[in-house]
Amino acid sequence: METQEQQAKSRVVKVDSVESWDFYVTQANNQGCPIVVHFTASWCIPSVAMNPFFEELASAYPDVLFLAVDVDEVKEVASKLEVKAMPTFVLMKDGAQIDRLVGANPEEIRKRIGGFAQSIRVAVA
């Protein structure tokens, strides 16, 4: 029961096709919304272990769109962004990659996303 409630409240959007990737990225760009993407794989234990942490970050930064992309399900997006290892976190603004972090390093990811969100707020203000 608890898992269903958690899923209902999830702020992380699962990308399941190239079309949904294009849709969310275009929508975010049109709204000037920054994006953080978690490239993951179900067989990659460190990547799967980052899921709850990624959810926590998504709740902490409501002005940022958080996307999860399974590299085996949406290979085209992973290759377009040259993702070669999991987990990979990509920070995007206006359709362009601003930053990238490879590996399961929660504190570094928190720091980078915090700085990224702060720079977006400063740019808007």
Plain-language structure description:
The protein has 6 helices and 5 strands. Strand 4 (88-93) and strand 5 (96-102) form a beta hairpin. The protein is an alpha/beta fold and 125 residues long. The longest helix is centred in the last third of the chain and has 19 residues, at 106-124. The radius of gyration is 14 Å and the shape is globular. It has one domain: Glutaredoxin. It comes from Hevea brasiliensis. Residues 1-118 form the Thioredoxin domain. This is Thioredoxin h. Keywords: Disulfide bond, Electron transport, Redox-active center, Transport.
Summarize the structure.
By secondary structure, this protein is an alpha/beta fold. It has helices at residues 2-8, 18-30, 45-49, 51-60, 75-80, 106-124, and strands at residues 12-15, 35-40, 65-70, 88-93, 96-102.
